[in-house]
Design brief:
The protein is mainly α. Helices cover about 70% and strands about 0% of the residues.
Protein backbone atom coordinates (compact mmCIF):
# COMPACT_ATOMS: atom_id res chain seq x y z
CA UNK A 1 0.00 0.00 0.00
CA UNK A 2 2.84 2.38 0.85
CA UNK A 3 4.64 1.70 -2.44
CA UNK A 4 1.39 2.27 -4.34
CA UNK A 5 0.78 5.65 -2.66
CA UNK A 6 4.36 6.70 -3.41
CA UNK A 7 3.68 6.01 -7.08
CA UNK A 8 0.45 8.02 -6.92
CA UNK A 9 2.19 11.24 -5.85
CA UNK A 10 2.25 13.66 -8.78
CA UNK A 11 5.59 15.47 -8.64
CA UNK A 12 4.23 18.38 -10.65
CA UNK A 13 1.60 19.09 -7.97
CA UNK A 14 4.18 18.85 -5.20
CA UNK A 15 6.40 21.32 -7.06
CA UNK A 16 3.48 23.71 -7.57
CA UNK A 17 2.73 23.64 -3.85
CA UNK A 18 6.37 24.20 -2.91
CA UNK A 19 6.74 26.83 -5.63
CA UNK A 20 3.89 28.94 -4.25
CA UNK A 21 5.19 28.83 -0.69
CA UNK A 22 8.86 29.33 -1.60
CA UNK A 23 8.04 32.34 -3.78
CA UNK A 24 6.13 33.95 -0.91
CA UNK A 25 8.99 33.09 1.45
CA UNK A 26 11.59 34.48 -0.95
CA UNK A 27 9.72 37.74 -1.50
CA UNK A 28 9.43 38.22 2.25
CA UNK A 29 13.16 37.64 2.70
CA UNK A 30 14.05 40.21 0.03
CA UNK A 31 11.68 42.85 1.42
CA UNK A 32 12.76 42.25 5.00
CA UNK A 33 16.53 42.04 4.48
CA UNK A 34 16.99 44.80 1.90
CA UNK A 35 16.80 47.72 4.39
CA UNK A 36 19.14 45.93 6.81
CA UNK A 37 21.76 45.15 4.16
CA UNK A 38 21.48 48.64 2.71
CA UNK A 39 21.48 50.79 5.85
CA UNK A 40 22.92 48.43 8.46
CA UNK A 41 21.45 46.54 11.40
CA UNK A 42 20.68 49.67 13.41
CA UNK A 43 18.04 48.08 15.64
CA UNK A 44 19.97 44.87 16.33
CA UNK A 45 17.57 42.73 14.33
CA UNK A 46 17.99 38.95 14.44
CA UNK A 47 16.46 35.98 12.60
CA UNK A 48 13.97 35.70 15.47
CA UNK A 49 12.60 39.20 14.85
CA UNK A 50 12.59 39.18 11.06
CA UNK A 51 11.65 35.72 9.82
CA UNK A 52 8.40 34.76 8.13
CA UNK A 53 6.29 33.81 11.16
CA UNK A 54 7.13 36.96 13.15
CA UNK A 55 7.20 39.62 10.41
CA UNK A 56 4.32 42.09 11.02
CA UNK A 57 5.30 44.51 8.24
CA UNK A 58 5.04 42.54 4.97
CA UNK A 59 2.02 41.05 3.24
CA UNK A 60 3.55 37.71 2.17
CA UNK A 61 3.16 35.99 5.59
CA UNK A 62 -0.52 36.92 5.64
CA UNK A 63 -1.01 35.37 2.21
CA UNK A 64 0.94 32.24 3.15
CA UNK A 65 -1.00 31.53 6.33
CA UNK A 66 -4.34 32.20 4.64
CA UNK A 67 -3.41 29.91 1.72
CA UNK A 68 -1.85 27.23 3.95
CA UNK A 69 -4.88 24.89 3.63
CA UNK A 70 -4.57 25.00 -0.17
CA UNK A 71 -0.78 24.77 -0.23
CA UNK A 72 -0.87 21.76 2.10
CA UNK A 73 -3.67 20.03 0.19
CA UNK A 74 -2.25 20.20 -3.32
CA UNK A 75 0.33 17.34 -3.21
CA UNK A 76 -1.54 14.30 -1.86
CA UNK A 77 -5.00 15.14 -0.51
CA UNK A 78 -6.99 14.15 -3.59
CA UNK A 79 -5.46 10.70 -4.16
CA UNK A 80 -8.33 9.06 -2.26
CA UNK A 81 -10.95 10.92 -4.29
CA UNK A 82 -9.27 10.04 -7.58
CA UNK A 83 -9.20 6.36 -6.65
CA UNK A 84 -12.81 6.49 -5.51
CA UNK A 85 -13.91 8.10 -8.77
CA UNK A 86 -11.96 5.61 -10.87
CA UNK A 87 -13.15 2.65 -8.80
CA UNK A 88 -9.59 1.50 -8.14
CA UNK A 89 -10.16 1.63 -4.38
CA UNK A 90 -12.58 -1.27 -4.68
CA UNK A 91 -9.78 -3.31 -6.24
CA UNK A 92 -7.59 -2.41 -3.25
CA UNK A 93 -10.33 -3.68 -0.93
CA UNK A 94 -9.67 -7.18 -2.21
CA UNK A 95 -6.02 -6.97 -1.20
CA UNK A 96 -5.91 -4.87 1.96
CA UNK A 97 -7.92 -4.33 5.11
CA UNK A 98 -10.34 -1.42 4.65
CA UNK A 99 -9.15 0.40 7.77
CA UNK A 100 -5.56 0.11 6.55
CA UNK A 101 -6.56 1.57 3.19
CA UNK A 102 -8.28 4.61 4.72
CA UNK A 103 -5.45 5.12 7.24
CA UNK A 104 -2.87 4.94 4.44
CA UNK A 105 -4.64 7.58 2.34
CA UNK A 106 -5.00 9.85 5.38
CA UNK A 107 -1.34 9.33 6.32
CA UNK A 108 -0.23 10.20 2.79
CA UNK A 109 -2.33 13.37 2.92
CA UNK A 110 -0.89 14.33 6.32
CA UNK A 111 2.72 13.75 5.27
CA UNK A 112 2.21 15.74 2.07
CA UNK A 113 0.68 18.64 3.98
CA UNK A 114 3.31 18.54 6.71
CA UNK A 115 6.22 18.59 4.24
CA UNK A 116 4.61 21.33 2.13
CA UNK A 117 4.51 23.57 5.19
CA UNK A 118 7.80 22.73 6.86
CA UNK A 119 10.11 23.16 3.85
CA UNK A 120 9.38 26.87 3.14
CA UNK A 121 9.32 27.74 6.85
CA UNK A 122 12.65 26.05 7.62
CA UNK A 123 14.19 27.54 4.47
CA UNK A 124 13.03 31.02 5.42
CA UNK A 125 14.14 30.70 9.05
CA UNK A 126 17.62 29.39 8.22
CA UNK A 127 18.21 31.95 5.46
CA UNK A 128 18.16 34.79 7.97
CA UNK A 129 21.04 33.23 9.90
CA UNK A 130 23.18 33.71 6.78
CA UNK A 131 22.70 37.48 6.75
CA UNK A 132 22.01 38.81 10.25
CA UNK A 133 23.53 37.90 13.63
CA UNK A 134 22.07 35.35 16.00
CA UNK A 135 21.04 37.83 18.71
CA UNK A 136 18.57 36.94 21.43
CA UNK A 137 15.49 39.22 21.16
CA UNK A 138 15.18 41.94 23.78
CA UNK A 139 11.77 43.31 24.73
CA UNK A 140 12.99 46.92 25.04
CA UNK A 141 15.12 46.95 21.88
CA UNK A 142 12.46 45.18 19.79
CA UNK A 143 9.42 46.80 21.38
CA UNK A 144 8.24 47.98 17.94
CA UNK A 145 7.32 44.34 17.18
CA UNK A 146 5.07 44.19 20.26
CA UNK A 147 5.81 40.52 20.97
CA UNK A 148 3.85 40.07 24.18
CA UNK A 149 1.83 37.46 26.06
CA UNK A 150 -1.44 38.44 24.36
CA UNK A 151 -0.26 37.66 20.81
CA UNK A 152 2.49 35.07 21.32
CA UNK A 153 2.21 31.58 22.79
CA UNK A 154 4.77 30.90 25.54
CA UNK A 155 6.25 34.39 25.20
CA UNK A 156 8.76 33.74 28.02
CA UNK A 157 10.23 30.90 25.96
CA UNK A 158 10.52 33.28 22.99
CA UNK A 159 12.73 35.72 24.91
CA UNK A 160 14.72 33.08 26.80
CA UNK A 161 15.14 30.40 24.13
CA UNK A 162 14.09 31.94 20.79
CA UNK A 163 15.47 29.09 18.69
CA UNK A 164 13.32 26.53 20.53
CA UNK A 165 10.32 28.85 20.20
CA UNK A 166 10.93 29.18 16.46
CA UNK A 167 11.17 25.40 16.07
CA UNK A 168 7.94 25.01 18.04
CA UNK A 169 6.22 27.49 15.72
CA UNK A 170 7.45 25.65 12.63
CA UNK A 171 6.30 22.27 13.95
CA UNK A 172 2.89 23.62 14.99
CA UNK A 173 2.29 25.14 11.56
CA UNK A 174 3.54 22.00 9.81
CA UNK A 175 1.26 19.82 11.94
CA UNK A 176 -1.66 22.00 10.96
CA UNK A 177 -0.56 21.76 7.34
CA UNK A 178 -0.92 17.99 7.68
CA UNK A 179 -4.24 18.44 9.49
CA UNK A 180 -5.60 20.68 6.73
CA UNK A 181 -4.55 18.09 4.14
CA UNK A 182 -6.28 15.25 6.00
CA UNK A 183 -9.45 17.33 6.33
CA UNK A 184 -9.35 18.05 2.59
CA UNK A 185 -8.98 14.30 2.01
CA UNK A 186 -12.02 13.73 4.26
CA UNK A 187 -14.09 16.39 2.50
CA UNK A 188 -13.18 14.94 -0.91
CA UNK A 189 -15.12 11.76 -0.14
CA UNK A 190 -18.31 13.80 0.13
CA UNK A 191 -17.74 16.53 -2.48
CA UNK A 192 -18.27 15.64 -6.14
CA UNK A 193 -16.10 18.24 -7.83
CA UNK A 194 -12.33 17.70 -7.66
CA UNK A 195 -11.50 21.41 -7.75
CA UNK A 196 -14.07 22.23 -5.07
CA UNK A 197 -12.66 19.43 -2.93
CA UNK A 198 -9.19 20.95 -3.24
CA UNK A 199 -10.50 24.35 -2.18
CA UNK A 200 -12.67 23.01 0.66
CA UNK A 201 -10.37 23.74 3.61
CA UNK A 202 -9.33 27.10 2.16
CA UNK A 203 -13.02 28.03 1.95
CA UNK A 204 -13.43 26.74 5.50
CA UNK A 205 -10.62 29.01 6.71
CA UNK A 206 -12.18 32.00 4.91
CA UNK A 207 -15.52 31.16 6.57
CA UNK A 208 -13.81 31.04 9.97
CA UNK A 209 -12.16 34.37 9.17
CA UNK A 210 -15.59 35.92 8.59
CA UNK A 211 -16.99 34.33 11.74
CA UNK A 212 -13.97 35.56 13.67
CA UNK A 213 -14.86 39.13 12.69
CA UNK A 214 -18.47 38.96 13.81
CA UNK A 215 -18.35 36.44 16.66
CA UNK A 216 -16.32 37.66 19.61
CA UNK A 217 -15.28 35.19 22.29
CA UNK A 218 -14.03 36.39 25.73
CA UNK A 219 -11.04 38.74 25.63
CA UNK A 220 -11.43 38.95 21.82
CA UNK A 221 -9.29 35.85 21.35
CA UNK A 222 -8.92 34.82 17.71
CA UNK A 223 -9.93 31.29 16.73
CA UNK A 224 -8.66 31.70 13.17
CA UNK A 225 -5.84 29.24 12.28
CA UNK A 226 -4.02 31.78 10.11
CA UNK A 227 -3.75 33.97 13.23
CA UNK A 228 -2.72 31.54 15.96
CA UNK A 229 -0.32 29.54 13.76
CA UNK A 230 2.02 32.50 13.43
CA UNK A 231 4.77 32.78 16.02
CA UNK A 232 3.53 36.29 16.75
CA UNK A 233 -0.11 36.71 15.81
CA UNK A 234 -1.83 39.88 14.55
CA UNK A 235 -4.60 39.22 17.08
CA UNK A 236 -5.06 38.08 20.66
CA UNK A 237 -4.46 34.32 21.01
CA UNK A 238 -4.13 31.75 23.77
CA UNK A 239 -3.12 28.12 24.06
CA UNK A 240 -6.60 26.94 25.10
CA UNK A 241 -8.12 28.14 21.83
CA UNK A 242 -5.33 26.49 19.84
CA UNK A 243 -5.91 23.17 21.60
CA UNK A 244 -9.69 23.35 21.18
CA UNK A 245 -9.45 24.18 17.46
CA UNK A 246 -6.89 21.40 16.95
CA UNK A 247 -9.21 18.88 18.63
CA UNK A 248 -12.22 20.08 16.60
CA UNK A 249 -10.36 19.81 13.29
CA UNK A 250 -8.84 16.44 14.20
CA UNK A 251 -12.14 14.90 15.30
CA UNK A 252 -13.92 16.33 12.25
CA UNK A 253 -11.35 14.71 9.97
CA UNK A 254 -11.66 11.34 11.71
CA UNK A 255 -15.46 11.51 11.76
CA UNK A 256 -15.76 12.38 8.06
CA UNK A 257 -13.27 9.64 7.12
CA UNK A 258 -15.03 6.96 9.16
CA UNK A 259 -18.52 7.88 7.98
CA UNK A 260 -17.24 8.22 4.42
CA UNK A 261 -15.59 4.80 4.69
CA UNK A 262 -18.88 3.22 5.75
CA UNK A 263 -21.11 5.02 3.25
CA UNK A 264 -18.93 5.58 0.21
CA UNK A 265 -16.50 2.66 0.21
CA UNK A 266 -18.42 -0.16 1.90
CA UNK A 267 -21.27 -1.29 -0.27
Amino acid sequence: MINYLKMRIVKRLALISLGISLILSGLQIVQSLTPILKFGNTFLESPYTRWFSVDPFNFEPIIFYILLPLIASIPTSLILKEDLDSGFIFYLRNKFNLNKIVFSYASAAFIGGFVSAIIPLVTNFLTYFLFIPNIRPDFLINENLLIINENTLFVDLYYQHPLMHGIFSILLTSFWGGLFAVLTCSFSIWIKGKFLSLLSTLLLQISILILNIFIKIPHFVSFLPSDFLRETAPSVINIATVIIMTIIFSLSSIFLLLIGRNRKIVW
